[in-house]
Amino acid sequence: MELQPKAFVTHGKLHGTVVAVLGWAGATDRNVAKYAEIYSKKGYTTVQFTAAPIVKGWGTKEGREVKNLAMALDSVLINRSSRLIIHCFSMNGFLTLTSLDSQFPELKVLEKCDGLFLDSCPASFSGFSLDNLKSHSLVMDHVYDGMIKNANFVSANAFKVYKKLQTSKFGYRLLMDTFWVKSGFSTIEAVSPYHYILNHPNLPPVITSVFSNADIVCSAE
């Protein structure tokens, strides 16, 4: 798993609109590529990126490391008239979007976005709860269990410890988020990606969310 994964750009024949495809936690580049190809076959330029499912720092702004994605988008959104379509897969894709918009406001990704497709997201994880911890633990299982299975004894145990550490950090962060918001030191938008988008002043005109009954993290309910 790369901590600073690459962004892949495929140039299309149609000019003016770029499609950003943001992958889910644990997805390989090959997994996401088949969805990016749907858009590239229609002639759109695509930017494919899957962030490492590791929190960069605190709050909405530091949810994911997205520097390479920002550089790729900056290279294709060269005209002021350039527009965006964004396809987010699950909460990893959603956190990628909110991190991108808050870390690189000069790109104006939501202002340039004409359509936002939220695939199996979003979910609100603001506030500490056992359900939120369980959901995060399930994501970590999905990301690391394959790596543990294929690793040697030492690496496998290191992955197991790291997986538990990430869930513990997530729980601590939820506790601190609740404290900072209730004490008035922070806003809900600063700590919750869900509320960051919900209350954003420049949302695109078309937003579509699709959920699956089989999704154990982002429930259709």
Automatic annotation (TrEMBL):
Signal peptide: none annotated. It is found in: Endomembrane system; Nucleus membrane. The keyword Transmembrane helix applies. It is a single-pass membrane protein. It holds the Pfam family DUF829. Keywords: Membrane, Nucleus, Transmembrane, Transmembrane helix. The keyword Phosphoprotein does not apply. InterPro entries: DUF829_TMEM53. GO terms for cellular component: nuclear membrane. It comes from the Eukaryota. This is Uncharacterized protein.
